[in-house]
Backbone:
């Protein structure tokens, strides 16, 4: 395995920020959602502390693709050039291979009237991307504490979140008081659990194995999804000569991993003729990381004194690969409501602000949630995907529309309408 395969970027010698007693807002988690939220809050003049249990760069199992609209948010945060300079791959669309071998090809610069912030998506290893985002939050004025784990959310007598309990290096947890607690702590969020907001979905229950290979043949500027009856694999360039490879299988197949995750991925590739030759000279470059099951949606994205953002609020399935965008956009969306909640002079005022955040989330993401579920269902029922693929492979304009929706710039209503669905399901 190449020594630098996890691409840690430049050495980070920054002295640890001491854990304060209090802040106006504490953001739990410094991934894309936490970094973006802290960036927007710090820019609005809020005294914000970010606490992450990891030290960055830290690995995060992810296919690492960002939609064209994510570039708008990276530009807002002033890091788009840095992300590109770090070697991000440019992806012009997606190709999906259905179980019956049909290919759905869709490009972002499609045959329709919508245009994204750019005509390309970006893809970059999370070990490179996430520190860039967190450093942007730091530069904006957020205090960032790495290697400190939040164990609990403290509540006041009225049951309102009043801060968190933070521990570093095996020391006893100490309180950090805050007027607003923001849970950006990803899947299995401690903040969501403690505030009884968690709701795991029964469908789809999938697990993922993620790694990087160097030397995969014919990795171009389309992200690839190869769907089979027993799962799917995503393959895409992440720049710097590496391809991200993510195999996603039903959680019921976890027992098949007994020979080891590495062997499982190797066998998956070897047993698929369309992949085998392309990996003949490829070398695995990073450890295989496992994650899942991942589908969950909080009952709501707020509680008195607290809000959730990113995966802590909801995540469905990697297939549509938009979690980084949702995390960045979620931070941008939350910030003004968080500022209003902090400025409120009564519990009712705070509640009004946080309820408005919930409505804004549903308005922003609701259509996309439906499309994700539609695609997730097709992936779980191969005859359905085969049928859709047969139609879409012959009608590239429809495929472009669907890829534009997953790219976050075509409104979900462009595919969630009787005309599109009838053509998809009824055309010969
Ligand atoms: C297999 C797979 C493939 C995916 N592929 C894509 C893709 O191609 N494109 C895409 O856009 N999205 C993809 N996603 C989704 C994407 O990875 C997530 O949506 C995104 O990382 C969410 O960002 P976040 O900041 O909410 O959470 P995270 O990135 O998970 O960050 C959460 C942070 O919280 C910290 N934390 C957790 N608990 C605590 C605690 N108790 N105390 C302190 N810190 C804590 C963690 O250390 C972490 O740094 C994929 C997901 C999976 C599972």
Residues:
């Amino acid at each position: 395995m190449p020594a630098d395969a996890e691409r840690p970027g430049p050495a980070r010698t920054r002295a640890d920020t001491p854990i304060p007693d209090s802040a106006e807002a504490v953001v739990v988690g410094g991934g894309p959602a936490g970094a973006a939220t802290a960036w927007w809050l710090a820019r609005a003049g809020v005294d914000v502390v970010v606490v992450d249990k990891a030290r960055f760069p830290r690995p995060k199992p992810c296919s690492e693709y960002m939609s064209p609209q994510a570039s708008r948010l990276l530009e807002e945060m002033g890091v788009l050039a840095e992300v590109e300079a770090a070697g991000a791959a440019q992806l012009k669309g997606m190709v999906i291979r259905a179980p019956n071998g049909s290919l759905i090809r869709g490009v972002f610069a499609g045959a329709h009237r919508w245009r994204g912030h750019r005509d390309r998506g970006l893809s970059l290893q999370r070990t490179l991307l996430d520190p860039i985002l967190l450093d942007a939050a730091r530069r904006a004025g957020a205090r960032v504490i790495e290697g400190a784990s939040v164990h609990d959310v403290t509540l006041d007598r009225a049951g309102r979140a009043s801060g968190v309990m933070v521990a570093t290096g095996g020391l006893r947890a100490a309180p950090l008081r805050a007027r607003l607690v923001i849970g950006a702590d990803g899947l299995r969020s401690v903040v969501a659990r403690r505030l009884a907001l968690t709701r795991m979905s029964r469908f789809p229950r999938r697990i993922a194995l993620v790694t990087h290979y160097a030397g995969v043949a014919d990795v171009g500027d389309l992200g690839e999804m190869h769907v089979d009856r027993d799962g799917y694999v995503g393959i895409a360039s992440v720049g710097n000569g590496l391809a991200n490879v993510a195999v996603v299988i039903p959680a019921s197949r976890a027992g098949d991993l007994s020979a080891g995750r590495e062997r499982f991925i190797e066998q998956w590739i070897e047993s698929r003729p369309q992949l085998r030759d392309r990996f003949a000279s490829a070398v695995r470059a990073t450890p295989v990381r496992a994650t899942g099951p991942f589908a969950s949606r909080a009952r709501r994205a707020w509680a008195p004194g607290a809000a959730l953002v990113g995966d802590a609020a909801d995540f469905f399935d990697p297939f549509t690969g938009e979690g980084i965008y949702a995390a960045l956009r979620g931070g941008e969306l939350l910030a003004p409501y968080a500022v209003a909640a902090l400025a409120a002079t009564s519990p009712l005022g705070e509640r009004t602000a946080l309820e408005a955040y919930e409505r804004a989330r549903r308005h922003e993401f609701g259509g996309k949630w439906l499309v994700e579920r539609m695609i997730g269902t097709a992936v779980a029922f191969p005859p359905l995907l085969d049928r859709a693929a047969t139609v879409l492979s012959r009608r590239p304009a429809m495929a472009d529309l669907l890829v534009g929706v997953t790219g976050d710039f075509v409104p979900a209503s462009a595919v969630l309408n009787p005309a599109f669905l009838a053509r998809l399901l009824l055309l010969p």
About this structure: Residues 347-380 form the longest helix (34 residues).
